[in-house]
Design goal:
The complex is a heterodimer of chains A (369) and B (391). Chain A is an all-alpha fold. Chain A is built from 16 helices and no strands. In chain B, 30% of the residues lie in helices and 31% in strands. Chain B folds into 2 domains: 27-228, no CATH class; 229-391, Nutrient germinant receptor protein C, domain 3 (GMP Synthetase, Chain A, domain 3, 2-Layer Sandwich). Chain B has helices spanning 9-18, 60-63, 85-92, 112-115, 120-130, 147-150, 161-170, 183-191, 230-239, 302-331, 338-345, 347-353, 363-366, and strands at 31-45, 48-58, 75-82, 99-101, 107-111, 139-143, 196-205, 208-217, 224-228, 247-252, 255-270, 279-293, 368-379. Chain B has 391 residues and is an alpha/beta fold. Classes of the chains: A mainly alpha (369), B alpha/beta (391).
Chain lengths: 369, 391
C-alpha cells in the first residue's frame, strides 16, 4: 500500500483550530452532564463548565504560544534546548504513552458503549478490533490526511448535536432549570474539576504546532477552537438538565444518548433517530483516537529516528488493542477514564510551566532557529 | 492490478463479509413488535407479590396497509405470571416464534390493585427505565380494574387497543384529565421523592375505554392512595394551571350555562415564612367561551357579561376549594404543585421542610390555601340566543 500524497503537504493554523475540538470532544460529550449533575444542583453546572472552559482556553493559548516560538522543531529538540536532554526524552516518552493510553481508552469505550446500544450479539473484542483497524489505517497514511478527516467530521458533529438540541426544545421544562445559584462552594469546585477533565487533548499541540506554516496565528486560533468545545458542552449540559431534570440526569449513565432516545421528531415519520446520532458521535471518538495515536507515533519517531513510521504504527497497534481489552466492564472503563482524565489534564500543565520559566530565563535566544 | 495486492485480497474479502455488521442482523419479519404491557397483581402470598404480565404484540398481517386494510385481528395478547417483569417477559417469549422487539413499546398499564401495594410501582417500572432499547417516552396509566382487560378493548376504528389508549391520552378535551405522563417523568418524581399523578382509565364496554380521572401516588408510603374524579380532578387541574380545553357548567341567574376553557394558568404566592402554618395564595386566571346557555340574557351587554364572568369564577373557585379540601385535609398529599413552587421560589425554606412536606410532620396539611379566580370571557358564541323565553 503506498500512502496517498496530498498536493499540499502542510498544516495551516485553521487545521489546528479544528484539531483541538476534534480531540477534546470524545466520550465526555456523552457523560459530562451526568457527572456534573452529581455535584452541582439544578442547572448551576454552567458556571463550572465556563470556569473550567476559561482555564482550558487559556492553557491552550499558553501552550500554543510557547510552542509557536519554535517553528519546524520537534518537541524533543525544543524541549531539550530548554529543559535539558534527559528531561526532554522523558517527557516525549510520557506523551507517547499517554497518546497510546487515550487511543486504547477510546477503543475500549467505543466497544462497550456500542455493544450496549447497537450490537447486541457482536463480541466486544470484534467491535474494538474493527474500530482499531480503521484508526490504524488512517494513522498509517499521510499526516495531512488526518487533519482533512477532522475538517470533514467536526462540522457533522456540531451539526448533528445542534439538530438534536433543536428537536429537544419541545421536551424542555423550565421547572427543571430553576432555581439558580443554590449550589454550595464545594459543589462548584467539584463541578469545575469534573468539567476541566473533559477538556483533554491540549497535549497534541506540543507536537503539531511546529508543523504549521502560518505559525503566528496559531495561539489565537487554537484557543478559539477550544472555545467551541466550551460552547458545545454548555449547550449539551443545559439541554440535558432542562429535559430530564437534575435528579434524573444524575442517574443516567450517558445522558446525551438518552436524550437522543427521548426526542420525537415532529410529524411522527422519523422516529428512533438515536442510531444516526450515535454514528456521528462515534466519528468524534474516532478522531480523538486517531489523533492521539498519531501523537504517540510522532513522539516515538522522534525518540527512535531510525525506525520507519509504518513500523511504529503497526508495532503499537497490538499493544493498544491489548490495553483496550483490559477493562472488562463499564465500571473498570469508567475508572480507566478517571485516571486518564487526570493525567491528560495535568501533564500539559506540568510541561508548559517549566517551558515558560526556562524560556523566560534563557530568553528568546533560540528563537527562529 | 498491483501484484503485491493479490495476497491480501482474501483477507479483504473476509473483512467485507465480517465487518458489514451482519452479526446482529435480525430481519424485520422475524421481529415481534411489542406495543403495550399490562401488569396485574396475580396473587399476594404475604411476602412476595406474583405479577401477571400481559403483552400486546402486533400482528402486521392484520394491520394491512392504508389502501388495503388487513382482515382479522391486528394484535395478540399473551399473559404469564412470574416474580419479575424481565423474567416473565422471557417466559412469554417461549410462546412467541419471533424475537421480541421492545423499541416500539408505547404504553405500560398498571392495575390499581398493584399500584396500591407499597413501592410496587417503582419496582415494576425499573426494567422499563433500565433497558437500553426502551424509550423514556413510554406512557404510564393506571387501570381501575384489571389492567389486561384494557388491552382487549377493541374499538371499531382502531385496530390495536394500545394505539387506541395512547390516542385517548393525547386527545384531552376535558378539565378532569391530565397531560399524559411518561416513564421518564415518573422516574424523576421517584428520584426527587415527590408525590405525583397518573391518568386513570377504566373499561366501560367491549369497545370503549373511559378516561376516568387521575390517580394519586403518594411519596411515602410510595403507593397509590386515592383516585380523583369529577370535581376533585377538575379543581386540581385549575390550581396547577394545567386545565386543558374542557368545560365548566354552572347556573347563571337560574339558567344553565356551559363555559369552555380556552386558556388556563395559575400563579402561586407564599404570604408568610412560618413553616408550621404556611399561607399560600393561588391566583388562577382563565379565559373561556360560552358554549351552551339555556337562558336569554343578552351577554353582548357589558353588565350582563360581568354576571357571567362572576358565575364562572365562582364555580371554578368552588371546584378548586373542593380539590384543596380533598388533597390537603383528607389525603394530605401534595399533588397540587406547591412543592415545585417552594423548590423554585423559596429554596432555602424548601430544603428545611422537604423531608416532612406531605408525610411525617406534614407541613402541607397544616398550611392555609386561598384561591382567587379571574375569569375572562372572550367569546360569547356566534349567536346571542336561540329562544325568547322569559322576554
Amino acid at each position: 500500500m503506498s500512502p496517498f500524497k496530498y498536493a499540499d503537504e502542510s498544516i495551516q493554523s485553521q487545521d489546528i483550530m479544528i484539531a483541538i475540538p476534534s480531540v477534546a470532544i470524545a466520550v465526555s460529550i456523552l457523560d459530562l452532564p451526568g457527572i456534573l449533575a452529581k455535584s452541582v444542583r439544578f442547572a448551576d453546572g454552567w458556571i463550572a463548565i465556563i470556569i473550567a472552559g476559561i482555564l482550558a482556553v487559556s492553557l491552550t493559548w499558553f501552550v500554543a504560544k510557547i510552542v509557536s516560538k519554535f517553528p519546524n522543531q520537534s518537541f524533543l529538540s525544543y524541549s531539550s534546548s530548554l529543559l535539558s536532554k534527559p528531561v526532554a526524552y522523558l517527557l516525549t516518552l510520557l506523551f507517547a504513552i499517554q497518546g497510546m493510553m487515550i487511543a486504547a481508552y477510546e477503543v475500549s469505550s467505543i466497544s462497550i458503549i456500542s455493544k450496549q446500544y447497537l450490537f447486541d450479539t457482536t463480541p466486544v473484542e470484534v467491535i474494538g478490533l474493527s474500530f482499531l483497524l480503521i484508526v490504524v489505517y488512517s494513522v498509517s497514511g499521510s499526516r495531512v490526511g488526518l487533519f482533512r478527516l477532522n475538517a470533514m467530521f467536526l462540522p457533522l458533529i456540531f451539526l448533528v448535536t445542534g439538530l438534536l438540541i433543536i428537536f429537544a426544545i419541545g421536551f424542555m421544562k423550565l421547572d427543571n432549570v430553576l432555581p439558580v445559584f443554590t449550589t454550595g462552594i464545594n459543589g462548584y469546585v467539584k463541578g469545575t474539576i469534573d468539567s476541566a477533565l473533559a477538556y483533554a487533548g491540549i497535549g497534541i499541540l506540543f507536537f503539531y504546532i511546529p508543523l504549521v506554516k502560518d505559525i503566528n496565528k496559531v495561539p489565537g486560533r487554537a484557543a478559539f477552537g477550544m472555545s467551541w468545545v466550551v460552547l458545545l458542552y454548555l449547550l449539551i449540559y443545559l439541554v440535558c438538565i432542562a429535559v430530564f431534570g437534575q435528579a434524573t440526569t444524575e442517574v443516567i449513565r450517558l445522558p446525551l444518548i438518552e436524550l437522543a432516545k427521548s426526542i420525537k421528531i415532529p410529524g411522527g415519520f422519523f422516529e428512533r433517530m438515536e442510531s444516526l446520532f450515535f454514528v456521528i458521535w462515534i466519528t468524534s471518538i474516532f478522531t480523538t483516537a486517531m489523533m492521539t495515536y498519531d501523537v504517540a507515533v510522532m513522539a516515538l519517531q522522534s525518540i527512535l529516528p531510525k525506525l520507519k513510521k509504518h513500523t511504529i504504527v503497526f508495532g503499537l497497534s497490538p499493544l493498544i488493542y491489548f490495553i483496550s481489552t483490559l477493562p472488562n466492564n463499564f465500571l473498570e472503563n469508567v475508572k480507566f477514564e478517571e485516571y486518564l482524565a487526570y493525567t491528560t489534564s495535568i501533564l500539559p500543565v506540568f510541561v508548559v510551566i517549566p517551558l515558560w520559566i526556562m524560556y523566560g530565563i534563557k530568553g528568546g535566544k533560540n528563537r527562529g532557529q | 492490478m498491483d501484484n503485491k495486492m493479490l495476497p491480501i485480497m482474501p483477507l479483504l474479502i473476509f473483512f467485507l463479509v465480517t465487518l458489514s455488521g451482519c452479526w446482529d442482523e435480525v430481519q424485520i419479519e422475524e421481529r415481534a413488535f411489542l406495543s403495550a404491557v399490562a401488569i396485574d397483581l396475580a396473587e399476594d402470598d404475604g411476602g412476595k407479590a406474583i405479577l401477571e404480565l400481559t403483552e400486546q404484540i402486533i400482528v402486521p398481517a392484520g394491520l394491512g396497509t392504508i389502501t388495503e386494510p388487513g382482515g382479522g385481528k391486528a394484535y395478540r395478547n399473551i399473559s404469564r405470571t412470574g416474580e419479575g417483569i424481565f423474567e416473565t417477559n422471557r417466559d412469554i417469549s417461549r410462546q412467541e416464534n419471533r424475537k421480541m422487539d421492545v423499541e416500539h413499546l408505547d404504553l405500560v398499564i398498571i392495575s390499581k390493585e398493584l399500584a396500591e401495594q407499597e413501592d410496587m410501582l417503582a419496582n415494576v417500572l425499573d426494567v422499563f427505565v433500565r433497558q437500553e432499547y426502551m424509550r423514556r417516552g413510554i406512557f404510564i396509566v393506571v387501570a381501575d380494574n384489571k389492567a389486561k382487560t384494557l388491552l382487549n378493548v377493541e374499538p371499531e376504528h382502531v385496530k390495536i387497543p394500545a394505539e387506541y389508549i395512547t390516542e385517548i391520552m393525547e386527545n384531552a378535551e376535558s378539565v378532569a384529565t391530565m397531560k399524559p405522563i411518561q416513564i421518564g417523568d415518573v422516574q424523576e418524581k421517584l428520584l426527587i421523592n415527590r408525590s405525583f399523578t397518573v391518568p386513570l382509565l377504566t373499561e366501560v364496554a367491549d369497545n370503549s375505554i373511559y378516561y376516568q380521572g387521575i390517580a394519586v401516588i403518594a411519596e411515602k408510603p410510595n403507593k397509590l392512595v386515592d383516585t380523583l374524579t369529577g370535581a376533585d380532578a377538575k379543581g386540581r387541574q385549575f390550581i396547577t394551571g394545567g386545565a386543558q380545553d374542557g368545560s365548566v357548567t354552572t347556573e347563571v341567574e337560574g339558567e344553565q350555562a356551559t363555559f369552555e376553557i380556552t386558556g388556563s394558568s395559575s400563579d402561586y404566592k407564599l404570604l408568610n415564612r412560618d413553616k408550621n402554618a404556611l399561607e399560600f395564595q393561588v391566583d388562577i386566571s382563565l379565559t373561556a367561551a360560552i358554549r351552551e346557555y339555556f337562558g336569554t340574557v343578552d351577554f353582548y351587554k357589558e353588565e350582563n357579561l360581568k354576571i357571567f364572568e362572576q358565575a364562572f369564577e365562582k364555580e371554578v373557585k368552588k371546584l378548586s376549594e373542593i380539590a384543596v379540601r380533598k388533597m390537603k385535609d383528607e389525603l394530605q398529599v401534595d399533588v397540587l404543585d406547591f412543592d415545585k413552587y417552594l423548590r423554585i421560589h423559596h429554596n432555602k425554606l424548601w430544603n428545611e421542610i422537604k423531608q416532612d412536606w406531605d408525610h411525617g410532620e406534614n407541613y402541607f396539611s397544616e398550611s392555609k390555601i386561598t384561591i382567587n379566580v379571574k375569569g375572562t370571557i372572550t367569546q360569547p358564541g356566534t349567536s346571542v340566543r336561540v329562544n325568547s323565553r322569559g322576554d
